[in-house]
Automatic annotation (TrEMBL):
Protein name per Swiss-Prot or TrEMBL: V(D)J recombination-activating protein 1
Cofactor binding note: Binds 1 divalent metal cation per subunit. Mg(2+) or Mn(2+).
Lineage, highest ranks first: Eukaryota, Metazoa, Chordata, Craniata, Vertebrata
Role this protein plays: Catalytic component of the RAG complex, a multiprotein complex that mediates the DNA cleavage phase during V(D)J recombination. V(D)J recombination assembles a diverse repertoire of immunoglobulin and T-cell receptor genes in developing B and T-lymphocytes through rearrangement of different V (variable), in some cases D (diversity), and J (joining) gene segments. In the RAG complex, RAG1 mediates the DNA-binding to the conserved recombination signal sequences (RSS) and catalyzes the DNA cleavage activities by introducing a double-strand break between the RSS and the adjacent coding segment.
DNA-binding region: 32-99
Annotated keywords: Chromatin regulator, DNA recombination, DNA-binding, Endonuclease, Hydrolase, Metal-binding, Multifunctional enzyme, Nuclease, Nucleus, Transferase, Ubl conjugation pathway, Zinc, Zinc-finger
Cofactor: Mg(2+); Mn(2+)
Span of domain RAG1-type: 1-21
Matches recorded under InterPro entries: RAG1 (IPR024627), RAG1_DNA-bd (IPR058552), RAG1_pre-RNase_H (IPR058553), RAG1_RNase_H (IPR058554), RAG1_Znf (IPR019485), RAG_nonamer-bd_dom (IPR023336)
EC number per UniProt: 2.3.2.27, 3.1.-.-
Gene Ontology terms: biological process: adaptive immune response; B cell differentiation; chromatin organization; T cell differentiation in thymus; V(D)J recombination
Subcellular location field: Nucleus
Protein's organism: Callaeas cinereus
Record's catalysed reaction(s): S-ubiquitinyl-[E2 ubiquitin-conjugating enzyme]-L-cysteine + [acceptor protein]-L-lysine = [E2 ubiquitin-conjugating enzyme]-L-cysteine + N(6)-ubiquitinyl-[acceptor protein]-L-lysine
C-alpha cells in the first residue's frame, strides 16, 4: 500500500487490509520470549548474531563483485540508505571520510584562509581551538600542518639533479631563502646601505616551477603520443622579468614603514620541448606569457 509505518505497528496495520489473503505470510510472528529489541540497542555480539545471514550474503557478493571489499559494499549501502532519506549532508561527510578527505579542510586551504584574512599564527591558532571546542570536530588544521603545506610550496622542497652538472652551481638541492646581494660588488653609490635583498636560488626555483607544471607536461607528452618517453632530454625556454611591487609596508598593514620599494625578479616558462629521435617535439607552450 506504499504507506510507511513503524515496525511495531505492522501487525495492527495489516489487519486493516481485509482484501489481503494469506496475510500472516507477511506479518512478523514473535515466537514467545522477549519482544525483539531494536538492532542498534543490542550488544555487538547480539548484532552479529541477528545479522549473520545478511553478513554471509554481503560477504558472498563482495567476494564475487568487489574483490572481497566488504567495507566498500556496506559503506555504499549505508550511503544509499542515507540519500534515500534525503540526508545528503551526513552522506557527503561520510563519503569524504571514506575517500580519506575527512570533513575538515585541506592544510593548503587553511593556509590560504590564514593569509587572505591577514591572521597571524596566534590568531589563527585561537580560531582553530575555538572551532574545535565548539563543534567538536577538527575543521581547520593545526598550525604545524600549515607550516608543512607552506614548505611544499617553496623552492628547494623538491630534490633534483642536473645532468650534465652545471658549472659553478651547487649540487645541494636543500635551499631556503638566500641573500640576494651576495656576490655583487657592493658600493654605497649603487644602492642604500639598508637595502634588504632576499631571493631563492635560481635553479631550485626553476625546479619548483617545473614540478608544479608536471600535469601539463605529461598531458603535452600524451598529445604527442610520447606516453612512455620520460627520460628526456627536455629543453626549457625561460623568459626572465623584473617588476616593482610598490611599497610593501602598505601591503602588510603592520610593522615599521619600509623606505624601499620592493622589486620582484621572476621568470616565465615559455615552452618545453623534448628531443625525440632526430626532431624536437614541443610539449608545452605558454599561451599568455
Amino acid at each position: 500500500c506504499d504507506e510507511e509505518i513503524l515496525h511495531g505497528k505492522y501487525g495492527q496495520h495489516l489487519s486493516s487490509h481485509k482484501e489481503m489473503k494469506d496475510g500472516e505470510l507477511y506479518s512478523y510472528i514473535n515466537k514467545g520470549g522477549r519482544p525483539r529489541q531494536h538492532l542498534l540497542s543490542l550488544t555487538r555480539r547480539a548484532q552479529k548474531h541477528r545479522l549473520r545471514e545478511l553478513k554471509r550474503q554481503v560477504k558472498a557478493f563482495a567476494e564475487k563483485e568487489e574483490g572481497g571489499d566488504i567495507k566498500a559494499v556496506c559503506m555504499t549501502l549505508f550511503l544509499l540508505a542515507l540519500r534515500a532519506k534525503n540526508e545528503h549532508k551526513q552522506a557527503d561527510e561520510l563519503e569524504a571520510i571514506m575517500q580519506g578527505r575527512g570533513s575538515g579542510l585541506h592544510p593548503a586551504v587553511c593556509l590560504a584562509i590564514r593569509i587572505n584574512t591577514f591572521l597571524s599564527c596566534s590568531q589563527y591558532h585561537k580560531m582553530y581551538r575555538t572551532v574545535k571546542a565548539v563543534t567538536g570536530r577538527q575543521i581547520f588544521q593545526p598550525l604545524h600542518a600549515l607550516r608543512t603545506a607552506e614548505k611544499a610550496l617553496l623552492p628547494g622542497y623538491h630534490p633534483f639533479e642536473w645532468k650534465p652538472p652545471l658549472k659553478n652551481v651547487s649540487t645541494n638541492t636543500e635551499v631556503g631563502i638566500i641573500d640576494g646581494l651576495s656576490g655583487l660588488p657592493l658600493s654605497i653609490d649603487d644602492y642604500p646601505v639598508d637595502t634588504i635583498a632576499k631571493r631563492f636560488r635560481y635553479d631550485a626555483a626553476l625546479v619548483c616551477a617545473l614540478k608544479d607544471m608536471e600535469e601539463e607536461i605529461l598531458e603535452g607528452m600524451k598529445a604527442k603520443n610520447l606516453d612512455d618517453y620520460l627520460n628526456g632530454p627536455f629543453t626549457v625556454v625561460v623568459k626572465e622579468s623584473c617588476d616593482g611591487m610598490g611599497d610593501v609596508s602598505e601591503k602588510h598593514g603592520s610593522g615599521p614603514a619600509v623606505p624601499e620599494k620592493a622589486v620582484r625578479f621572476s621568470f616565465t616558462v615559455m615552452n618545453i620541448s623534448i628531443a625525440h629521435g632526430n626532431e624536437s617535439k614541443r610539449i608545452f607552450e605558454e599561451v599568455k606569457p
